[in-house]
Amino acid sequence: MGNWEAVAKVVNGRMQDRGITQRELAEVSGVSPATLRQIQQGVPRQRSRATLAAISRALGFPEDHLREISLRGRVTPDRPDVDRPALDDLREELANLRQRVERIESRLPEGASE
């Protein structure tokens, strides 16, 4: 049958994390917007391995990531979300950059940063 609610949650979460739209994902993955819409809504319909692999790759996951989720409802422990540490590193780096910009702006004459 498949755990399509779990697949929908992962797809929607990754799209939000990466700031990509359904149209952009359709273009990159080669999967139709109608099929993506059904996947995002968790419609219980069997999907081909190729479709799930294309979406997985487009979202930066290993090729079998979404298939694993559809079969098990989660990723097996030996297949962690490979991008999570990188995302955490980027968030930390962004926070550091914001602090640096604030310090630089605080040293500028009033109105110079506008």
TrEMBL record:
InterPro entries: Cro/C1-type_HTH (IPR001387), Lambda_DNA-bd_dom_sf (IPR010982). Residues 16-66 form the HTH cro/C1-type domain. CDD domains: HTH_XRE. Coiled coil: none annotated. It comes from the Bacteria. Pfam families: HTH_3. This is Helix-turn-helix transcriptional regulator. It comes from Actinomadura chokoriensis.
